[in-house]
Amino acid sequence: MSKKQIFNSVIWFRTGMVGVFLLSLILRFWGLDRFNTLVFDEVYFAKFGNNYLTHTPFFNAHPPLSQYIIGIGIWLGSHVPFWQEPVNGLAGSLLSPWSYRWVNALTGSFIPLVVAAIAYQLSHRRSFAFLAGLFTASDGIFLVESRYALNNIYIVIFGLLGQWFLLLALENQYQRRSFWLVLAGISFGASVGTKWNGLWFLLGAYLIWIVGWGIHWLHSVFQQESIVSRKDNFNQITTPEPALATVQTPLQKLTQLNIFQMLFYLGIIPALVYSIIWIPHLQLDTRYGFIEVHRQILNFHLHMGGNSPTVHPYCAAWYKWPLLTRPMAYYYQTAQSVNDPLPVLGPNLPSAAGKVIYDVHAMGNPVLWWTGVAAMVFLVGMLLTKIVLPWIKYQRLSVPATLSVDTWIALYLVINYAANLLPWVKVTRCVFIYHYMCAVVFVFLAIAWFVDQCLHSYYRQLRAVGVTITFLILAAFVFWMPIYLGLPLSANAYKLRMLFNSWI
């Protein structure tokens, strides 16, 4: 590439990412105060955030960081000279819905940029990074969660920041590496300080580090054995995979981090940050100390009931999440016409009595999720092939001297996806589709990687596949957008979007 081509590529990439951010920002802030009520778990988190401002003690079943942030948002939002109407007193004070939602909308707008930053750091491919950001901005459940005072946005963004800072640390040395590792530890601690399952982002970091050292150790062992016993086959066993790019991924430097660094930066620092997060809450609610409040939280979750519709109509076991078989309605009301006042609290009208349906559905972009799962399965197959084929050829496990960038990317995505999904297998309490948000971001990265490979293929058919998948993802986002934003729909238009009975 000439300098001019590189310059133009950078300009187009930056312009594209600005466009992705503006799209995210507009969709999250548009009509943010349309429903002048508490939507779904805003009955907890908006109230809890306001309780810190009114000095009202309360018990919370999750760590308090997201409620602090919502509380700060309420305080700031209540002091701006606009968006102060309409108001309600449902959170314990007379507040505009905008005041307890805007900070979530702003935070959620940055998630596509962080995902794009991770993609770029993994590969240094701008096209991959742009697609990752665009696809993340085109998802429904992230849009819905960003538009209301809920807490899942924070566990995701802090966990992703921890992953990004770790990748940045691997690309630096000495003091700069320590700086990024400290930020990674703080971010992971903040993720756990939002919800305990933020630990799975940290688990993913440890697992990829262990795999990095495992590959290094296996290669060293095989190399020594080859020198001693089969010198003639040395070149066959250690021949590097053909890399698709000359750049290296930071993941190739995982063995530069030793156990003491990992335990300090990604062990002690997150634990310290998590502990500090609790201080304001424990000063407000003096009924429980640090240990006792954790016992109370654990007891709450253990007694929530089994993962069955008899406990909650939207309970959905972990294996239902990837295929999107049981999304959930956060808000559902009907009205006679679009000219009627927007319905707020109160019992739903009978389905036959309302001609207009307002539904806010916590549902992913179906095309994005389904193609993303297919891409993740493809990556798993690719990794297994790289293990099985050398076994068949050499009758032994073989580790190349240098893994390609795309092999490292596949390892990173598969390991982090598994780390954020598989721990839920053993969870017996009622769980919901939004618990998949931490894992599904790696699905977005997987389909972005696959589409990027297609678009750069020498084969026209594969390039057409990449373009088609991108178009279908964007078209699906537009098609299902009314149930993400809670726009008025006729009964027929609503049913058209509910492809399966289990979606309702």
Structure description:
The longest helix has 31 residues, at 199-229. This protein has a three-stranded antiparallel beta sheet with strand order 1-2-3. The protein has helices spanning 3-29, 42-54, 65-77, 97-123, 126-137, 140-146, 152-170, 174-192, 199-229, 234-238, 259-277, 279-284, 290-302, 366-394, 405-421, 437-455, 460-485, 491-497; strands spanning 328-335, 356-362, 488-490. It is globular. Helix 4 runs antiparallel to helix 5 (126-137). Helices cover 61% and strands 4% of the residues. The protein is mainly alpha-helical. It has one domain (3-503).
Quick structural overview:
By secondary structure, the chain is mostly helical.
Topology of this protein?
Layout: H1 3-29, H2 42-54, H3 65-77, H4 97-123, H5 126-137, H6 140-146, H7 152-170, H8 174-192, H9 199-229, H10 234-238, H11 259-277, H12 279-284, H13 290-302, E1 328-335, E2 356-362, H14 366-394, H15 405-421, H16 437-455, H17 460-485, E3 488-490, H18 491-497
Helix pairs in contact: 1-4, 1-5, 2-3, 3-4, 4-5, 4-6, 4-7, 5-16, 6-17, 7-8, 7-9, 8-11, 9-15, 14-15, 14-16, 14-17, 15-16, 16-17
Shape, principal axes of CA atoms: globular
Q: Sketch the topology as an H/E string, one letter per element.
A: HHHHHHHHHHHHHEEHHHHEH
* Helical proportion, percent range: 55-70%
Structural class: mainly alpha
For the termini, the CA-CA separation is: 51 Å
Major sheet: arrangement of strands: 1-2-3
Q: Identify low-pLDDT runs.
A: 231-246
Average pLDDT confidence is 90
As a whole number of angstroms, the C-alpha radius of gyration is: 24 Å
- Quaternary state of this entry equals single chain
Indicate the proportion of strand residues.
under 5%
The count of domains is 1
Question: How many E-type strands?
Answer: 3
Alpha plus pi helix count:
18
Largest sheet: 3 strands, antiparallel
Organism: Mojavia pulchra JT2-VF2
InterPro entries: ArnT-like_N, PMT-like, PMT_4TMC
EC number: 2.4.1.-
Membrane topology: Multi-pass membrane protein
